């Protein structure tokens, strides 16, 4: 999935102001993330090389900003047994954090990576200082082969939505490293410990899926499909066919993509939940067997019904990217705004696809942005579904919009600005608002106007409804 770059911005808008955007590199560091270093302290590592591991960790720390609302770092060392050095929320002062790294003493002993992975998984939980729902990373650094089995423990930690990078030095078992990270792209092998000083340059903090229109590698996706009487039976079959095409282009399973389908008309009906099928042939058969409901079009009720099916109790994997894809040909018979906002406030990416006479404004209200709303003339166009939906975390490029941020506009309202130009400032802010997701867990907007004296127009948490905010 695309990089999640989260920024807090202060815009100063005055008559002569300008903005410069600086593009972050492909291997840039995250701004909001939980990162645990799992470092090998076994006897096969010389003391001077263990110091180089610590130095690499310290270099990484020096290049980032830390705190409860920024990046959090934890370190776990392992040999025969693992040992917590410090958990994610223990230090938010960089100087204290660097001192804690410096004071780590090598364990010595064997190399039981499987046991260390099992020990580590819980330290991403909120009870141990983790922040499930934001990006979480595990960076394993080892020079050897594990003395115990790693595959089940590695799969369990990835199933929690944790992005795992495995870095091997010298004689480390490369195949085992790939088993741990789950991907060649997230496995690195260097000749010596001196190369670790550039760890931040070789690791890309992204949620795999760099291209617009590309298919996700790890995601929970629920299709919410309109089965009302306004959809002709042959067109309902085309909706199913589009989903089958999408399934055929992806890899499925507990550690890859999971698909669920909910059909709605007057009432919603679960066809199958996210973790029900991990065999592609069985999944395709289940789609083929879906029978159209007929009835009205209560999209709001369907959205409220759907939200719980992204929870872990219903097969969802909170912490990885989760998507809802709505497909409808009509206008809802009930209210959609509150239900749509609730589902987006859970961190879900919502795409709304309308066919024919569907209400476009309502679709935008549901998805939360024009960029995630699509309107096509007929059901035949759905066959290209995967080509126009971008499975990314909405910030692949410099200048893209934040997903979670507090933003205050500080705008010049002095007499030097003509009234028509002041209206243009307001119009620019309205455009910005329309392009973002607004709410307590997404983007919050505040405005302060100044001239001789400053004046608070509204503070950050005052409005979480986009329509009210625009007004």
Automatic annotation (TrEMBL):
SMART domains: VWA (SM00327). Pfam families: VWA. Coiled coil: none annotated. It is found in: Secreted. Keywords: Glycoprotein, Repeat, Secreted, Signal. One of its GO terms (cellular component) is extracellular region. Residues 1-22 form the signal peptide. This is VWFA domain-containing protein.
